[in-house]
Fold this sequence. Notes:
With 308 residues, the protein is of the alpha+beta class. The protein is 34% helix and 21% strand. The protein has a single domain, classed as (Glycosyl)asparaginase (Glutamine Phosphoribosylpyrophosphate, subunit 1, domain 1, 4-Layer Sandwich), CATH 3.60.20.30.
Amino acid sequence: MYALAIHGGAGAMPRAQMPAARAAQARAALAAALAAGFAELERGAGSLDAVTRAVMALEDEPLFNAGRGAVYTLDGHHELDASIMEGTTLRAGAVCAVRHVRNPVALARAVMEHSPYVLLAAEGAEEFALERGFEPVPQSYFDTEARLEQLERLRRAGPGRLELSQLGTVGAVALDARGRLAAATSTGGITGKRFRRVGDSPLIGAGTYADDRAAAVSCTGHGECFIRAAAAHDVVARMRFGAASLAAAAHAVVHEELGRLGGEGGLIAIDAAGHVVLDFNGEGMYRASRVAGGEPRIGIYRGAGEPD
Ligand code: ASP
């Protein structure tokens, strides 16, 4: 058995406002990233390769808030965060507030595999990237019209309640044929964030976690709440110590714990038996999954025509 699930964030605009062409574009981008990651599993590669490949594809896709297409900070920059974790060994790597790294998830993996550390920040991460041979990209590489308009709207409106459309993080979780789990998450953070603000995505236990004894988890949503809830690890802990099923553990975290904190968002998760959960407490979450022998399932909202 092997399986892969991905998300493109809880940043879907209300269903009634979503232009059909944009929804179709998002579904196609999800399908392409899912196929790229799933091809790794099909050729016998590990779950770590599958999540890296899928998240890199989503980072390269300007529709999503990670890599190219990342949101702007209040002062008009892009600062990216990413993390990755291997469930067999509990090895993990992460980077935060990087400005010149094309694929932050690849750098997070390099931190895991080629350094004694888990998390490198800002200039320290950029220096490590250069040492590892990552070609730096200018900030303009991440620019998109849509994200700039979003920042300008926010500047005009002044700081207010966080809107999910300011989100759009990406992530992936996978189980490979050898029973190994992995998770990865990558983001530009939240539109109009203060510079050096760091959310849950690069924090192991908050936005990302993987443990072969339970599940691999990647989160998206209002990062401050996910940090306070230790959301990704909470799913794993409920399974390991409370004997909860993956679905029950994910439901409790997304709807009870995060709900209690007013934290909008969701998560994708997969357990060692290949059960996949894609749960969210807002109107939508860009998501896709495929299990060995099955067809790709792609969704944005709930209800008719959408997978569970
Ligand atoms: N969780 C991310 C953050 O707070 C945002 C998102 O999921 O889109 O940085």
